[in-house]
Amino acid sequence: MLLIAIGVGLTATAIGFLLDRATDEQRLINDGYRSDIDDLRQKIDIERSSAEKFAIERLRLDFKALRSKFKKQVKELYKNSESIRAEYSKVIDNINYEINADGISLFRKRALLQGFCQIQDGLGKLDAYSDYLDWYRDSLDVDIQELTSERLLQLVDEMQPPSPFLPLEWLYVGKVLLLEPGELNKKLKFDNVIRLSNYQTPQGFTDSAQQALFMAYPDQTEIPVQIVGKDKRKEKLHFACVARGILYWDCILAGEPFEVQVKKFVGQGYLVEAFEGVIKAFLPISLTDNPFVKLIEGECVSVWPELHNLLLDDIPSGSKHKRFSVSMRRPIGLGEASNAYIALVIHNESYSTEIIQELSSGATWRLQRFSADDSRLFLMKGNYIFECRIDNGNFWLIVEHVCVNESVDSIVSGYEIPFHLLPVDDRVLCPELGNEASLSGLIAFAMQLENFESDSRARFQQLEMLSQWGEIIDFQNRHQNELEFELKADLFSVTDGWGEITLSAKSLYFEEYENESFEKYDFLAKRLSQQKNSYPPRIKIRFWGELLNQEMAWISPVAKRKDREISIELLRDRGIKIRFPIEEKCEIFDDGNYTDKLVRLEISLGDQSIMRQRKGLKLFKRGDIANIRIKDILLSPGAYSGEACSEWLARIKYGLSWGNPVLTENQKKVVEGVLSEKFVALVQGPPGTAKTTCIVEILHQIFSFNPLTRVLVVSQQNAAVDNAMSRFVEKHTELVDSDCVRVLRLGKEDKIDAELINFSLLSKQDKFLSQSKAAALATLANGTEPGCTLASQWISGFLGGFSNDSGSSKLDGEITWAILKNHNLVGATCVGLASRFQNMDQLVFDVVIIDEAGRSTVPELILPILKAKKVILIGDHFQLPPSIAPILLTDDSKERLPFLDKNFLEESFFERLHTQLPAASKYFLSEQFRMPKDIGNLVGEMFYTNAEGLTRLTNGKIKDESNFLFPETIAWIDVPGAQEQEGTSKRNKSEVSAIINFIKTMKVKGCNRKDIEVAIITPYSAQKSSIRRALAKISDSTDDGIYKVGSLNIKIDTVDSFQGSEADIVLYSVVRTKGDLSFILDWRRLNVACSRAKENLFFFGHVQFLLNKRMPDGERNLFCEILSRIPEENCWNLGYSKNSSISAAN
What we know:
The chain is α/β, with parallel strands linked by helices and 1146 residues long.
């Protein structure tokens, strides 16, 4: 059962008061009182006809006894009201806690917001209820001795027991009611008077704006107002706000926007006003249509309420600006689900007018409970619960029972549903009202929420993991981007409230960084040069001085909130100069000694990548994401059961038109599965399985189906992005040339492939400028007005102020935004996507494809996911996990981040998802096309064999090996050398020599072939450097890390860096001849090493050492397994009998 409460169970009395209903106990008590009143009335009728002298006295005593009962009940109700207030206050505290929780669902937050306002409404009623009880108690105070039988009868006829809840006609702060013009300033029931409230205007406090709104409201018989206060001297006088009433009635309840005027920009957003300044709200930058286009003061925009309290003057947990928040973005549901409807069939004659009216009200629907066993949904609207049967044959809901909301948890329970429910009289039903896609979506939504709540432990663990990554990012930032040091200034002066410090190169020099000397100036110069178009450095400066209490301490001379005015300048003599504003009351320089001061400088050099990753985690946790369902799935992947997109299912059933006619059945199945999954799809693609081919086909299918679809392709590496984008452009030129697909590649120009340079952001900007300038010059040549004047202003004012340095001006930002919005296929790296000057913050993509997802860290993955309505993750957790920053392997990191063990760092988010997501959302590319048969078999059998012994990775195509440089596709060259230590890494000179000699042999054998791609890979960076130095001596030339030796184009790299790349021939240098082999025997690293070759794979290593190495119990000696698969004739320079030695070793 799905029934969510906030942790505080309200008593039935508190619920009844909130919903203006008496409890069963209260009804029994009041029924007894009414019986007493009836009995007294009958006595009065009887005694009036009696001439007995003492009859009137007995009636007076009976009346007094009944009055005493009521007064006693009033005291009890006073007491109850205080208990109710305490309960409501606890609920408010719990709502404030839950509504700000990291893992809260958007739909839960909306339900909580409704509950918050309802509880606040209850608190307003409680305040008024005390006044009501005072009034009731006073009404009982009459002089009994003066009562005649006629007067007694009149009092008894008017008498009612005290109400256990506030009478509906009693006014209170927060109440929204409908008035007619004649009801203003007139006595209403209980002698209440309503007057329009005054608000500050340029003419002073006046109700003129309110009067104008009141008289201009279209329906003059029902004008909405909200009670916002009462006169302290005249308790019956209440002040009403028409603007707030209209905002509630016409906007919040109806789900419609309202217009605000921008008044002021205040750093994180805009102060806005509506209804002639009566309504004041706050519009955060992040909730505008485009934060890079600054709103102009006086500009009018349409907004929706975001977070608000009952009186629309703050948010639930309070805010700095004391205003409620609004958004320029329409409230989103599940992707596009909010645009769909589901018929809600009801038999009108079976239900009361109140229920029928509630169905057509603007109140939102909430899902309270889902019963899968009998296909029933329990939906809440207003004060009613609708039990609905799911009609899977006609695809609608049938209301079978309606009851008043009696649940003690129901006030703040459930989830707002992102579907429109359309009430339909069962007498006018027709088949066309059925909506299979929407009904299926609602059922999936209900099932998923039920699963999520039952999987709360896993959800908490995921949130904890995200918080831990936040700590990791902060730790990295402190150690990689912050400098802190103490020294004496060479020159220090104070002039006109500004201090200036000069630090020479000598004072900046120190020796303490991994046993290597370096100068802070060089570090600062390098990092400050990287600050261009990035976050400015933040500087703190303190002096060692004496406090007023004569204690010595580090004292900041900088005025409060003036830290950002501190500037730093690099000097030609390799020194630095720092200038800062001085606090007027700073006393540390009173001695007049400016130079003999010890200075502490803290310089934080903002790394935009780290800062954006930190921001991305924060946005994800608070739910600022394009599709909130994706957040829920990623937090509880084990609770997700998979959900299909009906449009794609229908298209696949009809038959797709394949863009690539040679796709295998497995590839087609994967593409179809990915397309039909609605929210999150995960593809495991082992080495050589043509992942890029599948990405290109997915793009083709998406744009063929709907050219308006917006797609983002990202990866950790530029090469992967360029490969997918350029392959798509090459294969589907007609889509690109026809402008059906508008391609944009984000990133630095020097990192983008030459084939895509015309699609870069800078190229697009240049094209816009040239076209814009040509159009303006043509207008000038035409010589007509006002075109000439406008063209001249355009050229001088706009084009003259435009910079070629992307993002360096406001105009750049606006043009960049326009370019981004106009392109429907965008490519970027995860880090490039994080650039604050790419203006990506507010863009939303229908599909986000993340390649090499297994190599991206959680914060890197979160950035593109934030922008996705649907996300496709493609990777392979059987290859290397995300790279680990060296700083995270230090003892300091382990001490400060105790959760930071090997498993935490090496288990990628992709692997977590693959482990927990349902089979319906996961796909496997089972055929490899890169490696020749023997290498493919080796990789498949060693690394992709499941627990049942079934090899999942097979050879998709048997290669023709007749033209290979060597007939042996896999071989081992025995090198019985010795490893050496070099710093923290290792090298093996004998293997370097063997590899160089082998390259010479390859040069001769390859003289008749052109451009043979060769890769030399090794686990160790020291060995990589040694091979590079040796190869440089025999190479014909070196260009961009590629060594040319005859027809050989040779790349040298570590295994980790070469993941994602391939070569015709791969040479693998083992290096190790002693010690622990856990690093090189990491099965994922060895998987990468073995799967790079398209033709030949050669190992260089000491065979006997590797064969004889004894492994801990349960661990595999993978090198023995590799050697067992290499034919004896392919083991060169091996002096052993394969059948005996290897068999024995295994």
